[in-house]
Amino acid sequence: MTAKIIDGKAIAEVLRAELTRELEGLKAAGARPGIATLAVGEDFGAGMYRGSVEKFCGEMGLGYRNESLPADASEGAVVKAVQDLNADPAVSGILPLRPSRRRCPTRW
Questions:
Q1: Is pLDDT of 98 > 50?
Q2: Hey, CA dihedral for 24, 66, 78, 71, is it positive or negative?
Q3: How far lies 68's CA from each of 22, 23, 106, in Å?
Q4: Average pLDDT of the chain?
Q5: CA distance linking residue 51 with residue 9, whole number of Å
Q6: Which residues, 6 or more positions from 39, have their beta carbon under 8 angstroms from its beta carbon?
Q7: Strand-strand pairing, 93-97 and 63-69
Q8: How far apart are CA 20 and CA 80, in angstroms?
Q9: Strand ranges (DSSP E) for the chain?
Q10: pLDDT tens for each residue of 41-56
Q11: Given pLDDT bands bounded at 50, 70 and 90, which one contains residue 108?
């Protein structure tokens, strides 16, 4: 079997152009798509990913909202945060972020 080199940048450009067209169609129909991140606890990697999501949303014209809870937040507090985000008409999708299992309460 011969290895095939994949041009990730070219693929990303095609996908970004396709997403741009889809977002323009949604906006023309009156929709205002947006993404929220919900971070539970502090984690460098999750923070970097959150920053990338925020930057991407800005570049694509998507709304963005960040919610953060402490690592020791109760399950009820996390559920309430998700419910609040679900109720927000500016939020079309939620990306949950949390530290690795070794830093989170065992009840998760």
A1: yes
A2: positive
A3: 29, 27, 19
A4: 90
A5: 20
A6: 46, 47, 50, 66, 67, 68, 69, 97, 98
A7: unpaired
A8: 32
A9: 34-40, 63-69, 93-97
A10: 888 989 999 999 999 9
A11: very low
